[in-house]
C-alpha cells in the first residue's frame, strides 16, 4: 500500500521514527498479527509522544483515512486481551 504516516513537524527525528513504528504495529495487527507485548511497547512510546486524547484521535483518524486501518480498534482489542496473546484483526 502507498500512503503516508501522520506526524507533527515539531517532533524530533526519533519521535517520528517511533510513531511510524507504532503505525507499523497497527499494520501488522491487520496483516499477520502482532504480540500483545510488542504492540503495548510501541503504544506506550506513542503515548509519550502524543499524550493528549484529542491529538491521538486526530492522528488515528488521519492514519485510518490514509490506510484503511483503525488504530482505535486495534488498541481496544489490545486492552481487553490477555497477557501473552496475539492480536490479529479481521
From TrEMBL:
<dbReference type="Pfam" id="PF05256">
    <property type="entry name" value="UPF0223"/>
</dbReference>
<protein>
    <recommendedName>
        <fullName>UPF0223 protein ACFSUL_03830</fullName>
    </recommendedName>
</protein>
<comment type="similarity">
    <text>Belongs to the UPF0223 family.</text>
</comment>
<dbReference type="InterPro" id="IPR007920">
    <property type="entry name" value="UPF0223"/>
</dbReference>
<dbReference type="InterPro" id="IPR023324">
    <property type="entry name" value="BH2638-like_sf"/>
</dbReference>
